[in-house]
C-alpha cells in the first residue's frame, strides 16, 4: 500500500513513497501505464502546453476559453474551447453508461463527471509569485541587512533587487518566461487540463483507490476515444492530447493545420510580455514600499563627533517617468542578466556581454521587440542541450534510468 503524502516527516520518506507509487500504480509499458496514461512529470511532458514546438515558452490567449459548470452549479470551470467541447462528449458517454446500468448513479466521481478545476490564469499567479519574491527581498535583504537608507529611488530599489537575486542560493524565476517554465506554474495554466476531484494530489492511497475502481477501465477507454490522456501522477486529472486524432476532430472546427499549430492559433509567446510585466510589477511593489516607508532618517557623524540627522523622502513614480529616465539599453542589460541568473548562469560573463552588445545593435537598427526576441532566442537554444533538458531526459529514459 502506498501512503505518500507531503506531510511526511522527511523528504527521504516522501521520495520513497513517491517511487513506490510510480512502480505500483500501473504495470503496463514498463510501469509507464497504459496508452491512455501520460506521466506529466517526465521529460518533455513536464512543460506540456506551456512550451511550443520550437521550445518557446507560451501562455494561453484567454479569449479562446469556454466554460462548464461545477457539480453544484455555483461557479464555472474554464478550459480551451475545444477541450470543453470534447469533455461535454465525455459527460454524454458517462450519462449513457449510467442509463444502461453500467455505472452506478451514485458514484462519487464517475456519476457526475463534472470538473472541479480547470484553467488557472498564469498572469495572476505570476503576479502573486513575484510579489512574494519582492516581499522576501524587502524583509530579508532591505531590512535584514539594514539597506533601507540606500534605497530612496526606483533605481535604487531595482539595483539592490538584482544584488539580492544574485545572492540567492537557488535560481529564482523572475521573468514571466522563466516562471511559466518552472514548477511554480502548472499544466492548468495551459487550458488543456481538467481535474475531476478536489482530493489532494499528494495522497497516494487516494490515487490507488481511484485506479483500482472497477469503473476505471471504462474511464480509460472513454478518455482515449475522446482524445484525453490521464495524468499518471494524479489520475483524476485529464489532459487534452493535441496529437490525438480523436482530439483533432474537436479543434479542427476552429482551424486547419497540424496538431502543433495549436500554439500559433491559441497561444502567445511569453517573452513578448516579459519586460512590460517586470516593469509593472516591480513598480507596483516599489510604490507600495514607499507608501509604507515614505522617508528614511540618515544619521552621520560630523566634526567633533557630533551627530547629524537628515530626513530623506522617497517619492513614488510611474511607468511614464521610468521610460523617460531609463533607456532601452538599461532594460536590455537587466533582462539578459535576469535570464542568465534564472538559467543558473549558463553563459559566462564575456559571452553574455557579447550577446547584450548584439541585442543593443538590433534594438538600434530595428526595435526593442526584436532585441528582446534575440535574447530570448539565445537562451531558448540552450534548453534542449542543458543539464536536465529534453535530449538528456530522453537518453536517460532509453538507458533505463
Report on this structure:
By secondary structure, this protein is α+β, with helices and mostly antiparallel strands. The protein has three domains: 20-119 and 190-254, no CATH class; 121-185 and 260-326, no CATH class; 327-386. The protein is built from 16 helices and ten strands. The protein has helices at 11-24, 28-31, 81-99, 122-143, 154-166, 176-181, 204-212, 216-225, 245-251, 262-266, 271-292, 319-325, 328-342, 349-365, 368-380, 390-399; strands at residues 37-38, 58-60, 65-69, 76-80, 193-195, 228-231, 237-240, 267-269, 295-301, 307-313.
Order of helices and strands: HHEEEEHHHHEHHEEHHEHEEHHHHH
The percentage helix is 40-55%
Q: Please mark out the parts with pLDDT under 50 across 5 or more consecutive residues, or reply none.
A: 386-401
Structural class by sheet pairing and helices: alpha+beta
Return the average pLDDT rounded to an integer: 87
Provide the gyration radius in Å.
25 Å
Strand content: 5-15%
Q: What is the β-strand count?
A: 10
Rounded to the nearest angstrom, the distance between the terminal CA atoms is 24 Å
* Integer tally of domains: 3
- Largest sheet geometry: 4 strands, mixed
Q: In brief, what are we looking at here?
A:
By secondary structure, the protein is of the alpha+beta class.
Amino acid at each position: 500500500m502506498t501512503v505518500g503524502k507531503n506531510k511526511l516527516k522527511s523528504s527521504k520518506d516522501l521520495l520513497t513513497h513517491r517511487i513506490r507509487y510510480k512502480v505500483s500504480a500501473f504495470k503496463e509499458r514498463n510501469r509507464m501505464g497504459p496508452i491512455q496514461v501520460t506521466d506529466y512529470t517526465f521529460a518533455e511532458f513536464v512543460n506540456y502546453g506551456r512550451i511550443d514546438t520550437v521550445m518557446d515558452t507560451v501562455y494561453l490567449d484567454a479569449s479562446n476559453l469556454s466554460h462548464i459548470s461545477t457539480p453544484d452549479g455555483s461557479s464555472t470551470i474554464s478550459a480551451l474551447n475545444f477541450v470543453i467541447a470534447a469533455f461535454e462528449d465525455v459527460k454524454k458517454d458517462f450519462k449513457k453508461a449510467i442509463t444502461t446500468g453500467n455505472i452506478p448513479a451514485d458514484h462519487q466521481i464517475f456519476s457526475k463527471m463534472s470538473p472541479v478545476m480547470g484553467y488557472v490564469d498564469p498572469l495572476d499567479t505570476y503576479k502573486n509569485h513575484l510579489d512574494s519574491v519582492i516581499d522576501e527581498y524587502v524583509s530579508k535583504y532591505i531590512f535584514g541587512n539594514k539597506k533601507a537608507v540606500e534605497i530612496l529611488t526606483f533605481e535604487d530599489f531595482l539595483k539592490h533587487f538584482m544584488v539580492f537575486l544574485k545572492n540567492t542560493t537557488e535560481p529564482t524565476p523572475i521573468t514571466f518566461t522563466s516562471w511559466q517554465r518552472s514548477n511554480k506554474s502548472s499544466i492548468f495554466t495551459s487550458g488543456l487540463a481538467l481535474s475531476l476531484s478536489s482530493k489532494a494530489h499528494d495522497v497516494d492511497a487516494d490515487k490507488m483507490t481511484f485506479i483500482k475502481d472497477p469503473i476505471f477501465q471504462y474511464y480509460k477507454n472513454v478518455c482515449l476515444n475522446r482524445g484525453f490522456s490521464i495524468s499518471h501522477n494524479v489520475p483524476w486529472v485529464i489532459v487534452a492530447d493535441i496529437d490525438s486524432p480523436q482530439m483533432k476532430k474537436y479543434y479542427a472546427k476552429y482551424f486547419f493545420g497540424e496538431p502543433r499549430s495549436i500554439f500559433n492559433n491559441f497561444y502567445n509567446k511569453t517573452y513578448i510580455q516579459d519586460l512590460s510585466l517586470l516593469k509593472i510589477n516591480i513598480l507596483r511593489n516599489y510604490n507600495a514600499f514607499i507608501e509604507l516607508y515614505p522617508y528614511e532618517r540618515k544619521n552621520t557623524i560630523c566634526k567633533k563627533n557630533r551627530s547629524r540627522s537628515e530626513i530623506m523622502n522617497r517619492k513614488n513614480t510611474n511607468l511614464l517617468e521610468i521610460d523617460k529616465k531609463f533607456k532601452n539599453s538599461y532594460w536590455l542589460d537587466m533582462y539578459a542578466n535576469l535570464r542568465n541568473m534564472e538559467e543558473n548562469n549558463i553563459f559566462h560573463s564575456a559571452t553574455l556581454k557579447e550577446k547584450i552588445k548584439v541585442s543593443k545593435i538590433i534594438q538600434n537598427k530595428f526595435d526593442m521587440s526584436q532585441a528582446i526576441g534575440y535574447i530570448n532566442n539565445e537562451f531558448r537554444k540552450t534548453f534542449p542541450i542543458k543539464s536536465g533538458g529534453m535530449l538528456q531526459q530522453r537518453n536517460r529514459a532509453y538507458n533505463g534510468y
